[in-house]
């Protein structure tokens, strides 16, 4: 009787110690969750969700302050994947967006470089006072370069 | 003559299909005359499109390089005859089911003058494997069985592994197609000669030439060619007539009894498979100095008046080729490039013959039609699947768009042979569904890769901005400290100077 009780108590103690060690020493799950959510986002860094980038939005989702349907470039598929990961209900996408790339009108460009500074993924190149150009393969279609342009020479072209 | 052995290796599933080949193998291969216009797509291979190296208006000769591969996976394109380049423009092509893609259009002058012979070795003596490989790359040779993978790059990949044997695929198991059969009958010497070149390039000492048991004539001719050559390293093999024994992985299993691992390549089990037509093309380039500018193709089907095999220049339109054979029959409703099971439907016959075009089929629609009914889960599809997949489960998950399950059930291993379609009592187009699902999985993977790239660039940019800010802050602090050290009098002097400069402006 005593042996049995002692054995069980010992096992419980060891298990408790192991668990407390794990919870303190291993990386916290919340941080991992933010990373997992971030992995599902399209990384356009467009801020159309209202947060300054994909990771801040991921953090906001995990903190439960943000809905999962705010990412227009991700589309409904991303909403569904987020819902599956987080065990939430699928919501209809708040705002739909078509995949696009930025195009600079080369004749109108004055080479001010404002668009280059605004691009979150360094997809715009050009020297000061000379024509700038978009590297199409790197452009995420975030539209962040459109507003800063003083001569309105950047337009968004839908991807075929 | 090398003894032909009948090898009954193990192959799961498969079907014995009516061959429909006797009509097109009755007569010898005929040459299609050079057309007035050649249309040469810059994408005739797996990989990046070739880059045109000729301008509009330029005169080119037969065998002249007109589009070069640019370092990435790809193959160059050569002019199939002499003439003038009149356009580089989109034209309907086979790999896009008749939708347009960029092509180089040559107006032929009819002289068919060849380009001055290049620096092809002409013989094998003293050629190093590296020299042979780079030479094969320049010949524009791709896998002629239909997969059009650039041959040189396939050989280079194979050389990095532990290679034991080369397998030349003369199985040609799909109904109607008989171009390899005819090539083996009429050009057996080129095929075994090509085998010698390939073995030299790969530095291996075993080659199996594999033929299906329903091609006794081809076997005989190959045997005679081998006897002439007296090369003990090349062994002739026969495999049973079962579709799809000519699939790359299936053939390896039949010949060596080794199974190619899921997601792997035949080189993982020490084998490299090349089509017999590819071997002949390698021989013609390395020994005779002629790049890949023509090929044998089968014109067949109920909708063709005179089924036959023809040799045509790459770039001849399908319409011209069919006209040459005698035109379409009244019942022709459906044009397919490739075999009836794995081929592609075309919306037009203005598409040019390309390196991978092994057959042109015109058929009645009713030969394939059948109303689609719900799956009754009979399991016949699983019994015939040569890769031992469960098509009914895959179909289920493909309909539900469940990528994870599709991957778990091995969709990526599907070779799209079409056996499951043929046996399905409910006439479900399973393979079509699998192709779409594969496309979707690829799309998803591309999207993921794109996101990862954007994320790397974003993080790199943030790191750079952070670095710049730190550098600026440091400089500012240093300037402030320098000013402090100089004392208030010096600061006042500097401020005064600045003030004067401003007023002076």
Structural commentary:
The complex is a heterodimer of chains A (160) and B (505). Chain A contains five helices and four strands. Helix content of chain A is 39%, strand content 9%. Chain A is mainly alpha-helical. In chain A, the strands form two sheets. Chain A has a two-stranded antiparallel ribbon. In chain A, strand 2 (124-125) and strand 3 form a beta hairpin. In chain A, helix 2 (29-40) packs across helix 3 (54-62). Chain A starts with a helix and ends with a strand. Chain A is elongated and about 90 Å long. With 505 residues, chain B is of the alpha/beta class. Chain B folds into three domains: 5-313, 3-Layer(aba) Sandwich (Rossmann fold), CATH 3.40.50; 380-438, no CATH class; 440-500. In chain B, the strands form four sheets. Chain B has a six-stranded mixed β-sheet with strand order 2-15-14-18-16-17, with helices on both faces. In chain B, strands 1-12-11-10-13 form a five-stranded parallel β-sheet, sandwiched between helices. In chain B, helix 2 (129-138) packs antiparallel against helix 3 (151-159), helix 4 (179-186) runs parallel beside helix 6 (216-229) and helix 11 crosses helix 14. Chain B starts with a strand and ends with a helix. Mean pLDDT of chain B is 89; it is low at 1-8. Chain A binds chain B through residues 41-45, 53-54, 120-123, 138, 140, and chain B through 447, 450-455, 457-458, 460-461.
Short characterization:
The complex is a heterodimer of chains A (160) and B (505). Chain A has 160 residues and is mainly alpha-helical.
Strand-helix topology:
The complex is a heterodimer of chains A (160) and B (505).
Chain A: H1 2-25, H2 29-40, H3 54-62, H4 75-86, E1 100-104, H5 114-118, E2 124-125, E3 133-134, E4 154-158
Antiparallel strand pairs in A: 1-4, 2-3
Chain B: E1 5-6, H1 22-25, E2 30-31, E3 37-41, E4 51-52, E5 59-60, E6 65-68, E7 77-78, E8 83-92, E9 100-108, H2 129-138, H3 151-159, E10 165-170, H4 179-186, H5 188-202, E11 207-212, H6 216-229, E12 234-239, H7 248-256, E13 271-275, H8 276-286, E14 294-300, E15 308-313, H9 318-325, E16 334-337, E17 344-346, E18 359-363, H10 380-384, H11 391-399, H12 403-408, H13 419-423, H14 430-486, H15 488-504
Parallel strand pairs in B: 1-12, 2-15, 10-11, 10-13, 11-12, 14-18
Antiparallel strand pairs in B: 3-9, 4-6, 5-8, 6-7, 8-9, 14-15, 16-17, 16-18
Helix pairs in contact in B: 2-3, 2-5, 4-6, 5-6, 5-8, 11-14
């Amino acid at each position: 009787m005593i042996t049995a009780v002692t054995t069980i108590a010992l096992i419980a103690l060891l298990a408790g110690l192991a668990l407390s060690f794990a919870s303190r020493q291993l990386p916290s799950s919340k941080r991992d969750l933010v990373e997992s959510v971030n992995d599902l986002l399209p990384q356009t860094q467009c801020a159309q969700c209202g947060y300054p980038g994909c990771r801040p939005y991921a953090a906001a989702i995990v903190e439960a302050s943000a809905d999962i349907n705010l990412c227009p470039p991700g589309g409904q598929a991303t909403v569904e994947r987020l819902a599956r990961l987080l065990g939430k209900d699928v919501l209809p996408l708040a705002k739909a967006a078509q995949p696009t790339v930025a195009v600079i009108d080369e004749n109108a460009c004055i080479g001010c470089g404002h668009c280059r500074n605004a691009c979150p993924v360094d997809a715009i190149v050009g020297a000061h006072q000379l024509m700038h150009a978009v590297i199409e393969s790197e452009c995420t279609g975030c539209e962040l370069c459109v507003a800063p342009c003083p001569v309105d020479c950047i337009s968004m072209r839908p991807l075929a | 003559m090398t003894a032909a052995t009948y090898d009954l290796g193990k192959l799961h599933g498969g079907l014995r299909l009516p061959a429909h080949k006797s009509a097109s193998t009755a007569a010898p291969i005929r040459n299609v005359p050079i057309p007035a216009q050649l249309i040469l797509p810059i994408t005739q291979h797996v990989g990046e499109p070739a880059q045109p190296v000729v301008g509009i208006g330029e005169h080119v000769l037969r065998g002249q390089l007109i589009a070069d591969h640019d370092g990435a996976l790809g193959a160059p394109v050569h002019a199939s005859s002499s003439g003038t380049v009149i356009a580089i423009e989109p034209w309907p092509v086979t790999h896009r089911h008749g939708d347009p893609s960029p092509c180089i259009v040559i107006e032929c002058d009819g002289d068919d003058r060849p380009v001055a012979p290049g620096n092809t070795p002409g013989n094998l003596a003293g050629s190093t494997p590296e020299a042979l490989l780079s030479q094969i790359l320049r010949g524009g040779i791709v896998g002629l069985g239909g997969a059009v993978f650039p041959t040189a790059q396939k050989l280079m990949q194979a050389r990095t592994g532990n290679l034991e044997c080369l397998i030349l695929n003369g199985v040609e198991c799909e109904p109607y197609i008989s171009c390899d059969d005819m090539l083996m009958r009429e050009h057996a010497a080129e095929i075994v000669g090509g085998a010698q070149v390939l073995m030299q390039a790969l530095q291996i000492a075993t080659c199996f030439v594999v033929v299906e048991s329903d091609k006794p004539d081809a076997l005989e001719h190959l045997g005679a060619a081998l006897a002439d050559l007296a090369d003990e390293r090349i062994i002739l093999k026969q495999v049973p007539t079962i579709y799809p024994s000519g699939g790359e992985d299936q053939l390896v299993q039949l010949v060596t009894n080794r199974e190619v691992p899921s997601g792997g390549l035949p080189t993982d089990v020490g084998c490299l498979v090349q089509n017999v037509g590819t071997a002949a093309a390698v021989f013609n380039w390395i020994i005779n100095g002629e790049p890949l500018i023509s090929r044998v193709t089968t014109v067949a089907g109920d909708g063709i008046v005179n089924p036959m095999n023809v040799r045509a220049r790459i770039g001849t339109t399908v319409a011209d080729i069919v006209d040459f054979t005698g035109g379409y029959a009244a019942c022709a409703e459906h044009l397919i490039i490739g075999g009836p099971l794995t081929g592609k439907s075309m919306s037009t016959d203005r598409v040019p013959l390309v390196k991978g075009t092994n057959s042109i089929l015109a058929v009645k629609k009713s030969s394939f039609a059948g109303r689609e009914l719900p799956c009754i889960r009979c399991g016949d599809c699983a019994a015939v699947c040569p890769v031992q997949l469960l098509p009914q489960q895959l179909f289920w998950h493909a309909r539900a768009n469940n990528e994870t399950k599709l991957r778990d059930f091995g969709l990526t291993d599907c070779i799209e042979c079409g056996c499951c379609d043929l046996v399905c009592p409910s006439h479900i187009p399973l393979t079509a569904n699998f192709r779409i699902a594969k496309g979707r999985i690829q799309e998803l993977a591309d999207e993921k890769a794109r996101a990862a790239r954007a994320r790397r660039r974003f993080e790199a940019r943030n790191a750079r901005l952070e670095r710049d800010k730190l550098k600026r802050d440091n400089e500012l602090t240093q300037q402030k400290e320098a000013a402090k050290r100089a004392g208030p009098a010096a600061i006042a002097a500097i401020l005064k100077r600045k003030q004067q400069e401003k007023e002076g402006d």
